[in-house]
């Protein structure tokens, strides 16, 4: 079939296998071009490994330090008539590239929140990997079923306390109009914490430690976003921010548990980027279109792979890691430079439907969005007839 993007609101419902493979390869090429990042980590578990920051972390570990990697993701395989999800094609492409490079790589496709997938992961680690020295927690999900009660919780993206009105860009129509989002109820806040907070990260580390598959000196990291004034009402100080605060609580609890292994748990603060998760957040597409313009002009623009590389070299494996006063690894330093934020705030005030393309990098944002699904990748013939089916070796 000839595969062209089918965009529906903030999601693209299909993906291009060759384009996804090209994206994975270009991230691998970036990491290889940086040279070795050292001999650690050696045995890495990435939970949320198929897209965005998790995929970039997996590529950095495998191709930067030659690590064995086990990835956990929740992706849709292709059928003869329907393409698979982008993460499915990414994971297949990663496994193939790793194998060709002589690197151990296995992918488990299933619900990371479940007890079954945790048990299957431990079994695989015991069989093939020995002990894990880095656990990356990079899940982004709108819902979670508690494995012990069977109850399913949904997260919401809402302000807390009062309703919030803001400029918002409709990425389909390119119209900019005010949106008002009502505040979350107490139950919605609690449910969002249940989905995106630290509970499942703790459950993973408890299960891994309980099965004795964590190495001496093991590190674990979970990802968050803090942002600044423009995004606080919908992110930092909103329901998702509350959930992310719970990661700090979990990191402190995990540091106590990992002390017996001289292990370490950190939250890493990463920059705002176009990913499937961030595209769903109101206000973000306009903020990102402006941020991309400003950071590209400053020469400070980074994608997932550049951030993951810095996280490993300036954070996790640095002799003096870039830590803040609450023990978080800070990779959002360039986005949050006061002069960068001041430029973004000024453009935010000035932007209208009429000057959107002139004042912002909406074009770059849109390309980055399509790129997530394997479209607009360099060197891919999008007019070619291609099978949506690819062979996976997922467990
Ligand atoms: P993403 O949507 O690109 O990736 C999410 C990953 O989680 C995918 O691999 C997906 O398969 C996996 N996943 C989702 N539900 C799952 C489940 N039930 N079981 C197994 N796997 C599942 O998201 P992302 O933007 O890379 O976000 C990853 C983390 O980084 C999140 O914690 C997010 O809050 C954080 N973060 C994102 C940004 C940003 O701007 N995108 C910035 C800072 C931090």
From TrEMBL:
It is an enzyme of class 1 (oxidoreductase). The active site is at 235 (proton donor). Pathway: Lipid metabolism; fatty acid biosynthesis. Substrate binds at residue 225. The record marks 75 as: Plays an important role in discriminating NADH against NADPH. One of its GO terms (molecular function) is NAD binding. It catalyses: a 2,3-saturated acyl-CoA + NAD(+) = a (2E)-enoyl-CoA + NADH + H(+); a 2,3-saturated acyl-[ACP] + NAD(+) = a (2E)-enoyl-[ACP] + NADH + H(+). Residues 2-80 form the Trans-2-enoyl-CoA reductase-like NAD(P)H binding domain. Residues 82-317 form the Trans-2-enoyl-CoA reductase catalytic domain. NAD(+) binds at residues 48-53, 74-75, 111-112, 139-140, 244, 273-275. GO terms for biological process: fatty acid biosynthetic process. Belongs to the TER reductase family. This is Enoyl-[acyl-carrier-protein] reductase [NADH]. The lineage of its organism: Bacteria, Pseudomonadati, Pseudomonadota, Gammaproteobacteria, Cellvibrionales.
């Amino acid at each position: 079939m000839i595969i062209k993007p089918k965009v529906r609101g903030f999601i693209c419902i299909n993906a291009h296998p060759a384009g996804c493979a090209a994206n994975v390869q270009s991230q691998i090429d970036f990491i290889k071009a940086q040279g070795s990042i050292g001999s650690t980590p050696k045995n890495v578990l990435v939970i949320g490994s198929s897209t965005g920051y998790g995929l970039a972390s997996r590529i950095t570990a495998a191709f930067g330090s030659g690590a064995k990697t086990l990835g956990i993701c929740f992706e849709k395989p292709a059928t003869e008539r329907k393409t698979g999800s982008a993460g499915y094609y990414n994971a297949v492409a990663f496994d193939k590239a790793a194998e060709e490079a002589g690197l151990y790589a296995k992918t488990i496709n299933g619900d990371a929140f479940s007890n079954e997938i945790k048990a299957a992961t431990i079994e695989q680690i015991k069989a093939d990997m020995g002990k894990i020295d880095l656990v990356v927690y990079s899940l982004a999900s709108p819902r979670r079923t508690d494995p012990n009660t069977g109850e399913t919780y949904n997260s919401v993206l809402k302000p807390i306390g009062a309703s919030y009105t803001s400029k918002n860009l409709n990425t389909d129509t390119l119209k900019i109009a005010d949106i008002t989002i009502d505040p979350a109820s107490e139950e919605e806040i609690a449910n969002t914490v249940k989905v995106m907070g630290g509970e499942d990260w703790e459950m993973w580390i408890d299960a891994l430690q309980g099965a004795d598959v964590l190495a001496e000196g093991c590190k674990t990291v979970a990802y968050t976003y803090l942002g600044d004034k423009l995004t606080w009402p919908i992110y930092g100080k909103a329901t998702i921010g509350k959930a992310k605060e719970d990661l700090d609580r979990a990191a402190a609890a995990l540091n106590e548990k990992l002390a017996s292994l001289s292990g370490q748990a950190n939250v890493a603060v990463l920059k705002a980027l176009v990913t499937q998760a961030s595209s769903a957040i109101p206000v973000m597409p306009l903020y990102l279109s402006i941020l991309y313009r400003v950071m590209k002009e400053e020469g400070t623009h980074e994608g997932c792979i550049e951030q993951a590389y810095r996280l490993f070299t300036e954070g996790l494996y640095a002799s003096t890691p870039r830590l803040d006063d609450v023990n978080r690894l800070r990779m959002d330093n360039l986005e949050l430079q006061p002069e960068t934020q001041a430029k973004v705030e000024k453009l935010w005030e000035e932007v209208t439907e009429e000057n959107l393309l002139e004042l912002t990098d909406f074009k770059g944002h849109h390309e980055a969005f399509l790129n997530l699904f394997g479209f607009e990748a360099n060197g891919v013939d999008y007019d070619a007839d291609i099978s949506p089916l690819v062979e996976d070796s997922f467990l």
